[in-house]
Amino acid sequence: MARTWFITGTSRGFGREWAEAALDRGDRVAATARDVSTLDDLAGKYGEQILPLALDVTDRAAGQAALARAFDHFGRLDVIVNNAGYGQFGMIEEISEQEARAQFETNVFGALWITQAALPYLRESGGGNIIQVSSIGGISAFANIGIYNASKWALEGFSQSLAQEVASFGIKVTLVEPGGFGTDWGGSSAKHATKLPVYDGVRVSAAEARKGRVANPGDPVATRSAILKVVDAENPPLRIFFGTAPMGIATADYESRLAEWRQWQDVSAEAQGPA
Question: Is 148 in the active site?
Answer without folding.
Answer: yes
